[in-house]
Amino acid sequence: MFEGIVRRIRFGSLAPLFERRVVSEWEKQGRPIPPPGTVKRKMILEFARRFNCRTLVETGTYKGDTLWALRKDFDRLYSIELDQTLHAAAAKRFAGMSHITLIPGDSGEKLRQVLDLLEEKAIFWLDGHFCGPGTAMGTEEAPVMREIQAVFDHQTHDHVVLLDDARLFVGRAGYPKVDDLDAWVQARRSGWVCEVVADVVRVYPGL
Question: Which domain holds residue 134?
Answer without folding.
Answer: 33-204
